[in-house]
Design brief:
4 helices, single chain, alpha/beta, 16% strand, 129 residues, 5-stranded mixed β-sheet, globular
Length: 129
């Protein structure tokens, strides 16, 4: 893969009505080892995306695929329209709400059963399709 997770500069743009979604993506990425992520001010764009987009300006598709796997959602797009200071830009869509619901359901079920929470996000995309 291109850069190590902790070195990738990842801009997060809120593309959904709920501004807290970008915060939850940032927290999720930090928990997964992406420590150089930040939220951009996107109020001027007034985006309302049904599906999360991962914008790749540099052509590092391996990094984009890894990020998509960690998020569990996202359509990868080669474009220079993302944040110019980033290696990747995540435009958070409404589908991230479904990821959060799945995470909350798993967490609740696992806590009720007395098991530890599993951070494996691989099956999110299966549940979203």
């Amino acid at each position: 893969m291109g850069q190590a997770s902790s070195l990738l500069r990842i801009a997060i743009e809120n593309g959904a009505e709920d501004r807290e979604l970008a915060d939850s993506v940032l927290s999720h990425l930090e928990a997964e080892g992406f420590y150089n992520a930040y939220i951009t001010d996107t109020d001027k764009y007034a985006l309302e995306l049904p599906r999360t987009e991962i914008i790749v300006p540099s052509g590092d598709l391996d990094a984009a695929e890894k990020l998509k796997k960690v998020l569990g959602v996202g359509k990868i797009k080669l474009s220079f329209l993302g944040d110019l200071d980033s290696d990747l830009t995540v435009r958070v869509g409404e589908d991230w709400l479904q990821v959060l619901e799945i995470k909350n359901e798993r967490s609740t079920t696992e806590n009720e059963e007395g098991e530890t929470t599993d951070n494996n996000e691989e099956n999110f995309e299966e549940n979203l399709d």
